[in-house]
Design goal:
The complex is a heterodimer. Helix content of chain A is about 30%, strand content about 20%. Chain A is of the alpha/beta class. By secondary structure, chain B is of the alpha/beta class. Among the domains of chain B are: about 230 residues, NagB/RpiA/CoA transferase-like (Rossmann fold, 3-Layer(aba) Sandwich), CATH 3.40.50.10420; about 60 residues, no CATH class. The chains are: A alpha/beta, B alpha/beta.
């Protein structure tokens, strides 16, 4: 049956006449492009993300692991999931010490073995970011074997490390310059704030299903 | 497999809309919501030059996608299969339901968590799965609210917009164990989070819709704010995506212009919280993500719409809902009065084509043709022109019309009235006789008489002038033509 449905659908589409309106790709303008300076990109990103309640921590390349640890300790977070073999995993781990809370939970096993802990006991998840988009205030996160998908979704706080030098102007530029079309990962994410909803009387409420807080550590 | 349920009797739009108009809570809830959505959208497009440029690009992306539709669907399928997805095709919603059920049965799955999907509403998937022993749970907060109350969405983006917080508070108090009555939106949201987290944790399968499917890379794109779409597509071992066959776009670079007009038009956001691009199931070494992804491509009348050169443009729609938000009719009667999956202006174009004009010929008339919908549409669908076309198809089908139920709205009385009108207007003698008759007889006709009632029930009876324009013109010395 599925094969016949496929043939029938494609047959019906092929039998159809062309559209009444001519295509006009040729004389189309380009997508309005934004070109900002480095400083403008950073402030545009901060402004857009702060408008949807994203928190920012300023840090240095040497000091960010301690900044993350101190911040999470202050928030009372006890267990922090991270990818130990992620690009920034080893550096993060260097700031944490066994026996001194908070404690790092390595996400290094299939989710089936870690799901209960992840849903019940983990207070924060740490990820790196691939780049960011100034125009919309957006983090670009590509989950990977080293930094699985759920790190940025299940824990109540998502801490993301962002290097200001990787901020780009627009999504279109990001796709083009980074050559996404040549090889998409299994999952690519644009994240522009903590989880939110306006389904009740259009009243904004944060933290509906995903993280209640998004904390960007800006280096 | 499953028998299509017999078509129920045609909905009565006049009755349903009159009832909605008399409901003060519907009037207030929609007025507030639509005013809010309109001003948020307007704030996103302060620069009309930018708006016109973006709109032209978005429209052309969709037009190009449709121009190459069969090729792009085949390319999408090939890419998806190469990426490890399983692709299914369904001509009807019955076939699509059977495919979904077959996948779930294959995994022994009885608990399904759902992200928001209007195509699954077309399929009446929740009811179908419930009849077959599968709990199909809506997890978008709005969809969850209306599923709890046994309702259908009243708006395609804000499905529970017809309810106010008091109504939702009562509902949660009654239907959710351990929930105490509260009108605090944060507390209500927290209650839903608590209940649904457990469901995400337990579910054996997740289902989502698709906002854009990219043929070039085989990527399924999902737009959402809550994270329930990510939960439904990342956590359970099986992910089923259902999409209308028009959702395909050619290239990855086609996505940014569509995404930006979609979120800005729909909710006035520069971008949604999450844009989830899914290309493959859990790969080697990956710790999470679904082990299987299925894509169900649904026709359900779309290929018929596609076959009409003028109506084909209906399929450009990216489901932003802006036409609803700006429609003076929708704002006053709300979404349920249309008794259709898709309400509002685009629904009045879509529904008669999928359900047939014989059943739904009233819908294209539920518009003053004020043109707000067509002006606001980010992909330039000429909604008002399509409404007029469907009105014509209902009364006098064009030769070789492929519109479902064409001619199904024809009325003897209307034909007769127009025949009389025409006769009177081509013969000066008849015209004069008619105006004289109307002038003399009008005071004698009761105000609520015959077909005139439809007008005079809510308006005063028109009173003909004592002297006709012809008389006045002649008096001024204007010569007869």
């Amino acid at each position: 049956m599925p094969e016949s449905a496929r043939a029938a659908i494609l047959g019906r589409l092929r039998a159809a006449a062309g559209p009444a309106l001519p295509l006009r790709d040729a004389d189309l303008p380009d997508l309005p492009s934004k070109k900002w300076s480095f400083a403008e990109r950073v402030s545009q990103l901060r402004r857009s993300m702060a408008a949807v309640r994203t928190e920012f921590l300023d840090a240095t390349e040497e000091g960010w692991p301690r900044t993350v640890r101190d911040f999470l300790a202050l928030q009372g977070a006890k267990r922090i999931a991270y990818g130990p073999s992620g690009p920034d995993g080893p550096a993060l781990a260097s700031a944490f010490h066994l026996g001194t809370p908070p404690e790092l939970v390595p996400y290094d096993r299939p989710v089936e073995e870690l799901k209960a802990a992840l849903f019940a006991d983990v207070d924060a998840g740490f990820t790196s970011t691939r780049s960011a988009i100034a125009e919309t205030g957006t983090l670009v996160v590509w989950p990977s074997p080293a930094e699985p998908r759920l790190l940025s979704l299940v824990p109540p706080i998502h801490v993301a490390l962002l290097r200001a030098a990787t901020i780009r102007d627009t999504f279109a530029e990001t796709l083009r310059v980074e050559g996404w079309a040549l090889g998409m990962p299994a999952n690519a994410l644009l994240i522009s704030g903590p989880s939110k909803t306006a389904d009740i009387e259009q009243t904004l409420a944060y933290g509906v299903h995903g993280p209640k807080r998004l904390v960007v550590v800006l280096v | 497999m499953s028998a299509e349920s017999p078509a129920p009797s045609a909905p009565d739009f006049h009755a349903a809309s009159s009832k909605a108009l008399r409901d003060p809570s519907i009037r207030a809830n929609f007025r507030r919501a639509m005013d809010g959505l309109m001003s948020k959208r307007a704030a996103q497009f302060p620069d009309s030059v930018e708006w016109n440029t973006l709109r032209a690009i978005a429209a052309s992306v969709r037009a190009r996608s449709l121009a190459k539709l069969p090729e792009l669907l085949e390319a999408l399928e090939a890419k998806c299969v190469a990426n490890g997805l399983k692709v299914h095709w369904a001509s009807t919603t019955g076939e699509a339901n059977a495919i979904v059920l077959g996948i779930l049965r294959g995994h022994g799955a009885t608990r399904l968590v759902k992200g928001k999907s209007m195509v699954s509403e077309e399929m009446h998937l929740n009811d179908f799965l419930a009849e077959n022993g599968v709990e199909s749970l809506e997890t978008d907060l709005g969809e969850y609210i209306i599923q709890l109350d046994g309702e259908t969405p009243s708006h395609i983006i804000m499905p529970a917009i017809h309810k106010n917080r008091q109504q939702i508070a009562r509902l949660f108090g009654q239907k959710i164990r351990d929930a105490v009555y509260t009108e605090d939106v944060d507390a209500l949201t927290a209650t839903a989070r608590r209940v649904l987290r457990q469901k995400f944790f337990e579910a054996e399968a997740g289902l989502s819709g698709v906002n854009f499917a990219v043929a070039e890379t085989g990527t399924l794109c999902l737009v959402e704010n809550e994270g329930n779409g990510r939960m439904s597509t990342h956590v359970p071992p099986v992910h089923i995506a259902v999409m209308g066959l028009e959702k395909v776009v050619e290239r990855l670079e086609d996505v940014p212009p569509l995404l930006t007009v979609l979120t800005r038009s729909a909710t006035g956001q520069p971008i949604s919280t999450y844009f989830n691009m899914i290309t493959a199931p859990r790969g080697p070494g990956e710790k999470d993500g679904p082990r299987e992804i299925h894509l169900v491509i649904l026709d359900n009348g779309r290929s018929r719409i596609f076959s009409d050169p003028e109506l084909q443009v209906t399929l450009r729609c990216i489901r932003c809902g802006a036409c609803m938000n700006h429609c003076p009719v929708y704002t006053r009667i709300g979404g349920h009065a249309y008794e259709a999956i898709y309400p509002g202006p685009i629904g009045m174009v879509l529904t008669p084509q999928t359900e047939g004009l014989a059943r739904r010929h009233e819908l294209p008339h539920a518009s003053s043709l004020c043109h707000a919908c067509a002006e606001i549409c980010p992909v330039e669908i000429p909604i008002t022109r399509l409404l007029v076309r469907l009105r014509k198809e209902a009364a006098r089908p064009s030769p070789g019309s492929k519109v479902l139920g064409a001619g199904g709205g024809r009325s003897r009385l209307e034909d007769l009235a127009w025949a009389g009108w025409k006769a009177a207007h081509v013969s000066p003698l008849l015209y004069q006789a008619m105006t004289t008759l109307v002038r003399l007889a009008s005071p004698l006709i009761p105000s609520k008489f015959g077909p005139m009632k439809a007008w005079t029930n809510v308006r005063s009876k028109p009173r003909p002038a004592r002297r006709t324009l012809h008389d006045l013109a002649r008096e001024k010395g204007v010569p007869d033509a």
